[in-house]
Here is the input.
Amino acid sequence: MSSTATLIRDLRPAVYAVAGGNHVTIVLDREATAGVFDVTEVTALPGGGPPPHRHSFAEWFRVFEGELTLIEASDGVARTRVLDAGDDAFVTPWTVHS
Here is the structure.
């Protein structure tokens, strides 16, 4: 079995200020993973976050501190979940969420 591990050195995360005073940090860009995935860290103020949206890729959320209200819609029904520190959630591609 051959190894497919990739060593990543000199990681310099890019930080972006977005609407509402929130910050998005690109911790690991998808170019470093041959387009397979990326890792972002979002610091959001209470009430912050994007409007409902969807995209072709999945998203995995982990709450490090505070809480995150995740709203997702499926078959015309919206479901709200509140995630606390230590909680995770996975949103499949094309699922409307905010």
